[in-house]
Amino acid sequence: MALPDIQANHPDIQINLTRVGVTNVKKLVEVSRGEKRPIILISTFNIFVDLPKNIKGANLSRNFEAIDEVLEEAIEAPVYEIEELCSAVARKLLDRHEYASRAEVQMQSEYIIKRKTPVTDVQCQEIVDIFADATATRENGTNLRRRIGAEVVGMTTCPCAQEIMRERASDELLRLGLSGDKIATFLRNVPMATHNQRGRGKISIEVSDGVDVSLDEIIDIIEESMSSRIFELLKRVDEASIVEDAHRRPKFVEDCVRAMAKLVVERLTNLPDDSVITIMQTNEESIHRHNAFAERVATIAELRDEI
Amino acid sequence: MALPDIQANHPDIQINLTRVGVTNVKKLVEVSRGEKRPIILISTFNIFVDLPKNIKGANLSRNFEAIDEVLEEAIEAPVYEIEELCSAVARKLLDRHEYASRAEVQMQSEYIIKRKTPVTDVQCQEIVDIFADATATRENGTNLRRRIGAEVVGMTTCPCAQEIMRERASDELLRLGLSGDKIATFLRNVPMATHNQRGRGKISIEVSDGVDVSLDEIIDIIEESMSSRIFELLKRVDEASIVEDAHRRPKFVEDCVRAMAKLVVERLTNLPDDSVITIMQTNEESIHRHNAFAERVATIAELRDEI
Amino acid sequence: MALPDIQANHPDIQINLTRVGVTNVKKLVEVSRGEKRPIILISTFNIFVDLPKNIKGANLSRNFEAIDEVLEEAIEAPVYEIEELCSAVARKLLDRHEYASRAEVQMQSEYIIKRKTPVTDVQCQEIVDIFADATATRENGTNLRRRIGAEVVGMTTCPCAQEIMRERASDELLRLGLSGDKIATFLRNVPMATHNQRGRGKISIEVSDGVDVSLDEIIDIIEESMSSRIFELLKRVDEASIVEDAHRRPKFVEDCVRAMAKLVVERLTNLPDDSVITIMQTNEESIHRHNAFAERVATIAELRDEI
Amino acid sequence: MALPDIQANHPDIQINLTRVGVTNVKKLVEVSRGEKRPIILISTFNIFVDLPKNIKGANLSRNFEAIDEVLEEAIEAPVYEIEELCSAVARKLLDRHEYASRAEVQMQSEYIIKRKTPVTDVQCQEIVDIFADATATRENGTNLRRRIGAEVVGMTTCPCAQEIMRERASDELLRLGLSGDKIATFLRNVPMATHNQRGRGKISIEVSDGVDVSLDEIIDIIEESMSSRIFELLKRVDEASIVEDAHRRPKFVEDCVRAMAKLVVERLTNLPDDSVITIMQTNEESIHRHNAFAERVATIAELRDEI
Q1: Nearest CA of chain D to the CA of A64: how many Å?
Q2: What does the alpha-carbon distance between residue B259 and residue A13 come to, in Å, rounded to a whole number?
Q3: Which residues in chain D show pLDDT less than 50?
Q4: A294: which chain B residues are within 8 Å (Cβ-Cβ)?
Q5: Does the beta carbon of D3 lie under 8 angstroms from any beta carbon of chain C?
Q6: Which pLDDT score, from 0 to 100, does residue A10 have?
Q7: Is B122 in Cβ contact with C28 (below 8 Å)?
Q8: Which of C26, C68, C233 sits opposite B64 (nearest CB)?
C-alpha cells in the first residue's frame, strides 16, 4: 500500500516558517580527535530547516530519519572538533531538503575535564557545560556560520564587602597600636573576609566556517577570569590555598566579563573581525536569593578597539 | 564612617558592558485593572542596564535598592496591564542611572484563567505562562520597546498517522461491503485514531510604547490554533467531546504556527507595521521522546503580505 | 446515551495499588487567617487514593471532578492554616471513595515574607518554599496524619577554612610585632575570611491531626540556624553587617542541622512524642561544584532525649 | 604547619545525624561487563555516612577525598553491573569511617539503548534514566541492601475515551446499514481514536547483597507494560504500526502498574521474598495539564500472593 504523503500537500494557510524540526534529541556522540583521547558525550540536539509557504510540512516523519542518518554518519566519521559535528549535520540537511534555504543544528552537552588539585597535585574530574551550533544558508553556494562555547562554574569574591572589612581591620589594628606601614603590610599579606559564591562564566564565539576555535582555550579563559577555579576534590591545604587566592582576587560580576573579554582579545588572535563574541557572568550571590549578572555582546573587532 | 565606594572607581579593564543587573528576582505583583478583578502574580524578574567602559560597577548594592523601590512604586500604582509594569520600571531605571543608555526589564509568571468545561459547563482553573519585557533607550528622549506574550498548553493530533488509519478503516469497510459513499459519510462523521499529545504554543509581540496588546487575546489565539484546548477538569462527556473535536482538527506543528500567524493578522489589526511577532509551537510527540518544533519570526507587515 | 463506565469493570490483573491519582495540579489558593492578611498562593498538588485489587480504575475522569470540587470548597472555607487545607481535602476524598482505605494530599508553594533590612530598616520581600501533606486512613473511624514544612535559603560560612585563615593572620601579626593578647583581641573583633555560600535549610514536621505547628516558627528556626539570613535588598551598611555577622558564626552543614534540631526541641514544646521531625541542610559550596549535605530524621522524643 | 582539625572537635550541640555527605557529584563512570561492550555513563552521585553525636563534622574536606579515591578505584575495577558500583563504594566508605554505622551511595544516570524500528528494522538509539543505591550497615559484620531501577518513556492510550469513540462508530455504522456482526468485525480490526500521550514507567527493586537483578530486564518490563514502546526514528510505516498497536492496547495508568507487577513476578523469579518492589506510572495526559499517576509499593512476596 502506498501511504498518503500529507506533508507534500499545499497548506491551507500559506506562510513561510523560520524553523521546523525536532528538539531535545539525545544522542551518544563519539568525537575522535586524532592523537588525543576520543571524547564521548551524551548530547542534546535541536535540528531545524526553514520551510517555504507552499509546502505543508517539513515531512518530520521522514525528516527524523534523515537527521538521524546524518548524525550517525557524522559520529562515525573522524571528526576532529565538536563544532565540526554541527557543521557537518547542517550542510547535509541542506543537501537533503531541496526546498530549504537554511538549516540549523544546536548541540549541548556535559564535558569532563581532568585536572590536579592546586597544592597536593591529586587528579580529579571537573564537569563543564559545552555547546555548539551551526547554521548553513544557501546563498551563492552554501554559507556556514558556527558557534561554540562553554559555561563553567568557578568562585567569585566581592570586592565591595571586602573593602569594608579591610577598613574594619585597619581601624582595629590602629586601635591596638600597630603602625600604618605594618597595617598596610598585614592587609597586603592576609586578605580580609567578604561574601563569596559560585559564579558561572559563559563564552560563546560565532565564526564563519573554517575558523578554528579551541574549546579548551575558552574553558581556560572563563576559569581564569573568576576569583578562583573550583575543584571537586580539595585536601585541607588545597582548600586553604583556594580560599586565600580567591580573596586576593576579588571580582565584581562586571570584572569577570571584562577579564574574559580581555583574554579573548589577547589569546584568540586568529579570529576574523566579524566574529561575534558573547560573554556572560552570573554570580549566585551568597547574601541574596537572586543572582548578579553581566554580559557583553560584540564583534571581536569592537572588543579589539576598546581594549 | 563613610564606606568606600568601589563601584565608582575606574576599572582596570575598560570595556563597555551590554547588560549589568540582577536575575531571578521574585516579587509578589498586584496589578489593578480598573473594573476587572486585580491580578495577583508571583513574578520572576531580570533587570539590567548597560555600563560604559569607564565605570567599574553598576553599583549593584545600590542598584538592588533602586530596582526594588521602583518595583514597589510600580506595583502600588494603578497599573492597568502587565506589560505596563515592565515599561514603568525600565523608564525609572534610566532616570536613576545617568550613565546608562539602555535599561531592560524582563518578567515571567504563571497566570490563572477561569473557564467552563465544554459540555457540562462546570467552572475550572487553567494555568498559562506569561511574560513581558521592556527596553528603554536614551535617544532623542527616551524610547521604549516592549514585548508581551504567553505560552499555553493544548492538545495536538497528527494528520499524517490519522490519514493512514483512515485508509485502513476505508479498506476494512470496503471489504465488509459498505459502499464508497457510505464509507465517506462514516469517515466524515467519525474521526479515526492518530497519535496525539500535549502541545505548547507561544506567541510574543514586540511593539513600540503606547501600542495596546491584549494578553487575553494572545492566549485565545494560541489555544484556538491547536487541535483542542485542554481542561483541568473533564467529566466523561466533556472528555469524549474534547477527544472527538481534537481528532476532527488534526494539526502538524507547522499548521499550529501558521494558524496562529493568521489569527494574529486577523485579530490584532491595531499593530503598527514594525511590530515583531514570534510564534512557536512545540509538540511533545507521544510516539517519540523528542519534540516536534516550528517557529516563525517576522514583522506584522511581513505576515500581512503573506496571508 | 449512557456512557460506558470502564473504570468500574474488574481488572484483568488483580493487584492492589498503593496510590492512584493526579500530580502537578496547579491551583490558586486563598487562605484566610482570621485577623491576619489572607495568604494567596499558586500551589501544586498531588492527590491520591489507594485502590483495591478488584477495581479496574479510580475513575480518574470522575476523580478529577471530585478533587477539584473538594479543593474549591476547601479554598472558600475560612481555613486558618495551610496544612489544614490538605487535611480537609484528604478527609473529603475518603468520604467520596468508599472503596479507598487511604487518601493522600501533597501541596507545595512559594510563600512571600515581608521583612526589614538589618541596619537600614527598609522593607523587602523574601520567598520561601513551603509544603504540606495530609494522609487520611480509615481505621476505627478516620485517622489523619499531617506534615508541614519549609525550605529557606540562607548563608553559611565554613569554620574550617576560617580557622586556617586565622592562623595565617596570627602568624603575620606576630611577625609584625603584635603581642599575643592583642592578636587575640584583633581576631575576636575582626572575623577572618573563609568560603561562604548559599545554604538551604529544610524542616518538615509530621504530627497527628489536631496538633498545631506554626509555619512561621519553622521558617524562623531554619534561618536562625545558618550563619546569616539573607535579604533581597541590602544597602552597603546592611551588606557589611551581614558579612560580618555570618563570619562570626561559621557553621558546618552538620552544625546547621544540629542547631535546627535544638531549636525545634526548645520552641515546639507542644509536639507529641511521636511527631516525626526531618531536618536537612544543603550547602552550595562555593569551592566545589557539588553540595555538602546533612540530615536528621527522628521522632521529637528521640531528639528530646539527645539534647 | 599543622593545620587545625576542627571536624575532630566535640560539637556544641550533641545530636546524632542520619546522613552527612555530598550531593550532586558528577563522575564519568566506565563499567566493564566482561564480554559485553563496556558501559560509559556520566553519573550523578550522592554519598553519605551517619555521624555520632560526639563528633563535630564528618570531615567533609577529607571525606571528599576518600569518596573520590574510592570511586576511582571502583571505576577501574572490573565491576560487572552498575549496582555493584554503589555497593563497592558503600562498603569502602564504612571501612574508612570507623565512627559511622551506616554508609549510603545513590547514583543516577542516562543510559543509551540501541534498538531497531518495528517495521523497517532501522537501528536507532533510545535514552532511559537509570539509578542504583546501596546502603551498608555495620551489624554482625557488614550488611548490604541495594536497589536498582529505571524510568522509561513510552506511549499510553486511554481505554475510557476509546470506548466512547467505539460506541459512536458503532452507532454510525448501524445507521449506515452495516450488520452487528460486521460492525463487531470492523471494530476488532480497526482500533478507534482516543487520547494518548507520553507515559513514564518506573520500577525499582531493593534486594540484599548478592542477589542479581538485570537492568535490561527491568527496562524491558517497563516498556512492555505500556500501550506501546516509542522510538526516536520512525519511518511512516513504522509510525502507522506504532499508532495501531498502541490503540489495540489501551491502558489506564493503573493497568500499566499492574502489568509491570505481573511481569516482575513472572520474570524475576530469583528474587528473595523480602525484596521490595516499587512500581510507578505517570501519564502526561494530552487532555490535561496535569498528570495521571499510579504506584504500588510491596515486597515481592506480597505481589506473588496477589497474582
Answers
A1: 6
A2: 7
A3: 1
A4: 17, 19-21, 51, 58
A5: yes
A6: 80
A7: no
A8: C233
* Contact check, Cβ <8 Å, A193/C243: yes
Closest listed residue to residue C136, CA positions, set C79, C188, C93: C93
CATH number for the segment(s) A14-158+195-306? 3.10.270.10
How many CA atoms does the CB half-sphere of A244 hold within 13 Å? 19
Option in D61, D239, D240 nearest A235 (CB): D61
Cell 535617544 sits on residue: B139
Q: Which residues pair with B293 in a beta bridge?
A: A21, B282
Q: D254 to chain C: which residues are within 8 Å by CB?
A: 11, 17, 20, 51, 56-58
Report the distance separating Cα A39 and Cα A30, nearest Å.
6
* CB-nearest partner of A197 from C161, C168, C286: C286
What's the CA gap between D89 and D9, in Å, rounded? Answer: 27
Query: HSE of D91 in the Cβ direction (CA atoms, 13 Å)?
Result: 15
- What are phi and psi for residue C273, nearest 5 degrees? -55, -30
Mind telling me how many Å the CA of C164 is from chain D's nearest CA? 7
pLDDT in tens, A70-103: 667 766 766 556 767 888 888 888 888 889 999 9
**Rounded distance, CA C170 to CA C183, Å?**
6
pTM equals 0.94
What is the residue whose three cell numbers read 476488532? D188
Q: And the C-alpha cell for B182?
A: 457510505
Considering only CB atoms, which chain B residues are within 8 Å of D290? 232
Give the residue from A124, A298, A291 showing the smallest Cα distance to A201. A291
- N-terminal to C-terminal alpha carbon distance within chain B: 67
Residues of D in contact with A31 (CB under 8 A): none
* Residue C1, pLDDT score: 42
> Cell digits for A79?
571528526
Chain D touched by A68 (CB under 8 Å): yes
The 3-state DSSP class for residue C194 equals coil
Q: Mean of the pLDDT values across residues C15-26?
A: 95
- C167-191 pLDDT, tens digit per residue, is 999 999 999 999 999 999 999 999 9
Chain C residues with beta carbon closer than 8 angstroms to that of D54 = none
Identity of the residue in C13, C297, C306 whose CB atom sits nearest the CB atom of D262: C13
Phi, psi for residue D34 in degrees, rounded to 5: 65, -120
CATH number, domain B13-158+195-306: 3.10.270.10
Tally of CB atoms within 10 A around D69: 14
Interchain contact, A289 vs C182, CB within 8 Å: no
Summarize pLDDT for C186-206 with one digit per residue, the tens. Answer: 999 999 999 999 999 999 999
Grid coordinates 496524619 are at which residue?
C145
C113 close to A (CB below 8 A): no
Enter the ipTM: 0.91
For chain C, the C-alpha Rg in angstroms (whole number) is 25
Query: Is the separation of the CB atoms in D162 and B196 below 8 Å?
Result: no
Burial (CB count within 10 angstroms: exposed 0-12, middle 13-18, buried 19+), residue B10:
exposed
Per-residue pLDDT tens for A12-38?
A: 899 999 999 999 999 888 776 666 666
Could you tell me which CATH number the domain at C10-158+195-306 has?
Answer: 3.10.270.10
Domain boundaries, chain A: 14-158+195-306, 159-194
Contact D6 C53 (CB under 8 A): no
C203/C264 Cα distance (integer angstroms)? 9
Chains that touch A (3 or more CB pairs under 8 A): B, C, D
Contacts of A183 (CB under 8 A, 6+ apart): A169, A170, A173, A174
- Going by C-alpha positions, the residue among C86, C201, C101 that lies closest to residue C147 is C86
**Phi (first) and psi of residue B34, to 5 degrees:** 65, -120
- SS3 call for B65: helix
Whether A287 and C194 lie within 8 Å, measured CB to CB = no
Q: Does B249 touch chain C (CB under 8 A)?
A: no
